Amino acid sequence: MAEQGPTTLWGRSGERRRLDDALAAVRRGESAVLVVRGEAGVGKTALLQYAAGQATDCRVARIAGVESELELPFAALHQLCAPMLGGLAALPEPQEHALQVTFGLASGDVPDRFLVGLAVLSLLAEEAAKQPLVCLVDDTQWLDQATRQVLGIVARRLLAESVLLLFGVRETDDERLLPGLSELTLQGLEAEDARLLLAAAVTGPVDDRVGDRLVAETGGNPLALLELVKGTSEAELAGGFAIPSTASSVPDQLHDRYLQRVRALPEPARRLLLLAAADPTGDPALLWRAAQILGVGRDAVGSGEVRQLLEVGSAVRFRHPLMRAAAYAAGSSEDRRAAHLAVATATDAKTDPDRRAWHFATAATAPDEDLATELERSAERAHARAGLAGCAAFLERSVALTPEAERRTDRALAAAHAHLHAGTLEAGLGLLAVAEADAVTDLQRARVEQLRGEISRASTSGSQAPVLLLQAARRLETLEPRLARETYLDAWGAALVAGHLAAPGGTLRDVSAAARPASSASGPVEPGDLLLDGLATVILEGPESAEPSLRQAVDAFVGDQLPGEHWLHWGTLASNAALALWDVDCWDRVSARHVELARTSGALAPLAAALNVRRVVAIWCGDFETAITLGLEEQVVKEVTGARRASYGGLFLAAYQGQPDQATPLITATADEALVRGEGLGQQIADRATALLQIGLGHYAEGMAAADRAATGNFGPFTWQALPDLVEAATRAGQPDVAADAMRRLQAATAITGSDWAVGLEARSRALLAEGEAAEQAYAEALERLGRTPLRPELARARLLYGEWLRREGRRVDARDYLHAAFDAFSALGAEAFAERARRELLATGEKVRKRRPDTLHDLTPQEDHIARLARDGRTNPEIAAELYISTRTVEWHLRKVFGKLGIRSRKELRGALPAGRRYGHGAG
């Protein structure tokens, strides 16, 4: 009986209905994604094959992950897309070029990982426009990381493309792949269905006790049942004699069964199966060239037993992934090396040099410097196509082939560094262990400490990272002063995030005190030195003393005087430096550039942090629309990389929107998670968000308590940002002493030359504590200064406070103008609590103002609203698709829904249906 016959789907009626429904959706012009999870043999592959069998009116594309190519970047993605590359010309030029570079068809800079994802999405959409498309991805756990990331992006962007994307995943103990997608978890068959399957697979009688035992031993795993039956005689099945099982698990039992079958084959057949297992491309021409090298003829595939395991036609395909694994395991280590050597020899050195080097490396029996060097060259090419993840994979392979210890350590360190920025932190730690064991020089040992601290920081944002990095920096001072200063800068960033949760000796003041002497060491002064000096001085002496160094450092970043590697390391710190200068324009420019470079390099771990900062900039500038869109992208990056750091932009957005039922649980959960991760800054941001929420609601005592917590400790500019809220909440709560103390601290924090932001907030806060003409002059100064900035919420808050003061002074007519301006601004922003606070003040002046009633605009989802506004502003559908990482067809689908909700028929009517909004700064990032 064939392994994937109908009996393997026995009892899976519910699962088949899920697939039938998904196929029906695709035929209706929608998209569907389903992750099928389960242990080996439980029926994942059978369900994927069922879907292929039902999709007779669809185009079916299949790939499967292969363990031997787990680290070869974009290997599986190329297999999926290769038959569709004839449609590349239909893609927008940037997407076409991104795929050409990714697949080695053209040269160029490393493409943005999200642009590659959009290009694949567009390619699938183009194919699906001709005929509904079903993509089957089996053994997802063995896909190379780059492919898995891109397909994860595609899966989260599919909507209206007539594409079904099915993943089969055998879960590992320590990682849950593709989280957040619709899923179907397969368990063993129910006992009754398992017994029926057993009966259907056996021609003779089965003793009830034997049948029950087989069902219990396999847990109802259908493939295991069928394989066990094959190894059990009719007499044993009918006689009730128990046969002990020696396998520890169902996958082990299945693997052993297939091993027995492969090892029972003639030697030429075993060699052919091993070659097919070693080469996952499925290219029959390559298989036969490699077979000829090993002296295996085409007749080796002729036996029925071989055909039950392997299909050789227009493509080479095993009938089940476990069969591939068994075919590979059945060979000795010598046999496997011979197979890889034959595949490498048969691979064209010009068209596929990297895969050729990969197979030669797998066939190597001893360290080989020439081959290790070739893998280094492949790493450079992979970096150009696949970014840091691809580079890390080849460097890691080259480490094992490097004969000389010092060179091996350098390569291990380089690979660990690439894994760090690619977000594959466990792999980075493994390479650090290699580097530590082989390190020859003190510098190499210090670099191990440095990278271990950086990985600790990236993985947990934890309390230990500042101490680890500080120790490494001190050790590096006499060995490599430049690297020492860079490490001090990393330690400063880690200490900022850890905050009051930092381990002893790792506080921000500790790091700043240790770093100051290093920042002024002899030698040419670089922007990183200025950044380190400025940030350390901010903590030790305050912003006024730090201003010269910070200004020069920020100007260097704004002027793009640093290499991309420095941006990835310190882009967030450069944004913090601009924040310390109260320079909103530079804050905007630096954060936008950081996002751009992180995207371009494919460095997803830094991209998550860059998007987090960019969202905060958008919110402070009143562009909630962009903040929502950036949040969607940030969430995708976190899902793809597994990053867990809190989204500060999400907290501030929820606080400004002023809906406590939604905001409070989010803020509480973020604070709790930050405590677990040792992320003191996350707790401080949660307190600031709480203060903002409560002040908007008019709950001033609660707002004062939260703002007081946020203003406690030394988080540099993050602490200062809480002080205006503390002044406002304390004055309204009747706590003038608290407000006066916060005001003194704010005046010291805003002693920055030429900042309208700093002067405006200082004046607004000073007005709250003043009386009479002094208060009015301070309010006028605040309105003038903040009016020169893009900080729309801060300006609206100044108008609200001034209007409240005028009303209390009995000047109700004057108050109405400012209160109306505040109400309109907050309403346009979507800051509902602040808008309601302004409305109540207007009522107190005798002005009749109704609450803004929800209209049809509130029926639009954030994605629909953003797409509608982009269309209103003249963007074409392809332009919108490129900006939002969705397909053109999804844009069209969203616009049809928008038109229906707004009661309009065309894009021309959007201008009247949607209020004009002002976008801030230098783009959405």
TrEMBL record:
InterPro entries: AAA_16, P-loop_NTPase, Sig_transdc_resp-reg_C-effctor, Tscrpt_reg_LuxR_C, WH-like_DNA-bd_sf. The keyword Nucleotidyltransferase does not apply. Residues 853-918 form the HTH luxR-type domain. One of its GO terms (cellular component) is cytoplasm. Keywords: ATP-binding, Nucleotide-binding. Gene3D superfamilies: Winged helix-like DNA-binding domain superfamily/Winged helix DNA-binding domain. SUPFAM superfamilies: C-terminal effector domain of the bipartite response regulators, P-loop containing nucleoside triphosphate hydrolases. One of its GO terms (molecular function) is ATP binding. CDD domains: LuxR_C_like. The keyword Plastid does not apply. GO terms for biological process: regulation of DNA-templated transcription. This is Helix-turn-helix transcriptional regulator. It comes from Nocardioides iriomotensis. The lineage of its organism: Bacteria, Bacillati, Actinomycetota, Actinomycetes, Propionibacteriales.
